[in-house]
């Protein structure tokens, strides 16, 4: 049995998760996966139910699950609560408590969506890059962090950006391993011209590189990387970077592919436990309207089957089904183009289910 914990979350989370679960159930029948699902709350939904964004019992359920599928958390409803209880803190906590330090964020342009990107087709066509983001260290977790009022009455706040050698080494290894099964090309992105943490990052990545002589390693400052991602994104294959830079660059990369609604992700620990979720947030601006793109979450199911369970045929089939649906010209609003048929969240999920059944 494969025990999968479903955490729909907030905003569009429950809408896109319903479609992903439909697809997972069909894949389960078709490929005899032996999947068993359980459900719980995370983020604002958990705050409303348990008074905290991640309840202890939910964390325990996540610990014993073989894999976790997450929608997205957050929203304006919880903007005014104690910052320590905000929905996003629940997400950060589950990532760190489960040791999910390796975040894989592929940015792949489906050829059918070349027109959906705001960049010229020749710049993005054939784009297939992988951003490996460190997920449990750096400035999102660093202590001390504080907000205070100075003696002169001025408000001030600070965060801390720490990285230890072992944290850098383990994420570098994930990235080199990925590079080995792809095109043996890795770019490490940092700000080593300014930050001490980045200088250590660069040093340790160089040390890890000695174990991977076949991989062509380069380094780039994050500001230049942001520019190069838009100027000539196909120069990259695998990118490895820290928590905050990876957060920003992966959102940027998503636009090369047309929409953030297309990008899945995997967050892995040192073994084979993983949490899978779309790269986007809870999209409060479109929540409850039935228009959100469920494909990033559906593609996250595919990543789960591939990375946590080695169910390669089922993972491939889901990706193929998504591609077929795009061939049929079905588009949610975020990827809509001339001559295509605009569909809602449920119709898109139904179309993937139908395509998967017919494969
Ligand atoms: P967002 O990713 O939720 O939305 C950014 C824009 O992309 C919005 O215009 C939204 O409508 C659109 N969008 C996102 N997903 C879409 C989809 N599947 N289909 C169609 N359009 C989509 O980012 P935003 O607005 O900065 O954050 C909203 C909330 O989500 C905040 O509370 C934030 O903290 C939270 N958040 C949660 C994340 C997570 O749970 N992993 C990640 C990022 C943000
Ligand atoms: Mg983000």
UniProtKB/TrEMBL annotation:
Subunit structure comment from the entry: Homodimer.
GO molecular function, one term: NAD binding
Assigned EC number: 1.1.1.85
Cofactor note: Binds 1 Mg(2+) or Mn(2+) ion per subunit.
Pathway the protein contributes to: Amino-acid biosynthesis; L-leucine biosynthesis; L-leucine from 3-methyl-2-oxobutanoate: step 3/4
Gene expressing this chain: leuB
Cofactors: Mn(2+); Mg(2+)
Positions contributing to NAD(+) binding: 75-88, 281-293
Site (Important for catalysis): 140, 191
Biological process annotations from GO: L-leucine biosynthetic process
Main location: cytoplasm
UniProt enzyme class: oxidoreductase
Catalytic activity: (2R,3S)-3-isopropylmalate + NAD(+) = 4-methyl-2-oxopentanoate + CO2 + NADH
InterPro entries: IsoCit/isopropylmalate_DH_CS, IsoPropMal-DH-like_dom, Isopropylmalate_DH
Family membership: Belongs to the isocitrate and isopropylmalate dehydrogenases family. LeuB type 1 subfamily.
Protein name per the record: 3-isopropylmalate dehydrogenase
Localization per Swiss-Prot or TrEMBL: Cytoplasm
Start and end residues of each Isopropylmalate dehydrogenase-like domain: 3-352
Entry function: Catalyzes the oxidation of 3-carboxy-2-hydroxy-4-methylpentanoate (3-isopropylmalate) to 3-carboxy-4-methyl-2-oxopentanoate. The product decarboxylates to 4-methyl-2 oxopentanoate.
Amino-acid positions noted as binding substrate in the UniProt annotation, renumbered to this chain: 95, 105, 133, 223
UniProt: Mg(2+) binding residues: 223, 247, 251
């Amino acid at each position: 049995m494969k025990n999968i914990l479903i955490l729909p979350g907030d905003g569009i989370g429950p809408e896109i998760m319903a479609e992903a679960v439909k697809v997972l159930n069909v894949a389960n029948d078709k490929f005899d996966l032996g999947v068993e699902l359980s459900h719980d709350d995370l983020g604002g939904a958990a705050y409303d139910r348990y008074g905290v964004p991640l309840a202890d019992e939910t964390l325990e359920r996540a610990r014993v699950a073989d894999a976790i599928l997450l929608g997205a958390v957050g929203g304006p409803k919880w903007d005014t609560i104690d910052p320590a209880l905000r929905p996003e803190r629940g997400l950060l906590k589950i990532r760190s408590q489960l040791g999910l330090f390796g975040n894989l964020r592929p940015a792949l342009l489906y050829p059918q969506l070349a027109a959906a990107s705001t960049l010229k087709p020749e710049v993005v066509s054939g784009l297939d890059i992988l951003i490996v983001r460190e997920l449990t260290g750096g400035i999102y977790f660093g202590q001390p962090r504080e907000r205070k009022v100075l003696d002169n009455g001025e408000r001030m706040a600070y965060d801390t950006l720490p990285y230890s050698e072992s944290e850098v080494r383990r994420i570098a290894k994930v990235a080199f391993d990925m590079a080995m099964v792809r095109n043996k090309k890795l770019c490490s992105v940092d700000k080593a011209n300014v930050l001490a943490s980045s200088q250590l990052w660069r040093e340790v990545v160089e040390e890890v590189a000695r174990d991977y002589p076949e991989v062509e390693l380069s380094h780039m400052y994050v500001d230049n990387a942001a520019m190069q991602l838009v100027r000539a994104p196909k120069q990259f294959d695998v990118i490895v970077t820290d928590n905050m830079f990876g957060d920003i660059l992966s959102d940027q990369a998503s636009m090369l592919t047309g929409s953030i609604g297309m990008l899945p992700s995997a967050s892995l620990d040192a073994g084979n436990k993983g949490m899978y979720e779309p790269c986007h947030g809870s999209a409060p601006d479109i929540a409850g309207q039935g228009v959100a793109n469920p494909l990033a979450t559906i593609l996250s199911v595919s990543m789960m089957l591939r990375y946590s369970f080695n169910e390669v045929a089922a993972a491939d089939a889901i990706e193929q089904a998504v591609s077929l649906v795009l061939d049929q010209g079905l588009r949610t609003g975020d990827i809509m183009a001339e001559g295509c048929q605009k569909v809602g969240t449920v119709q898109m999920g139904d179309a993937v289910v139908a395509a998967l059944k017919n494969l």
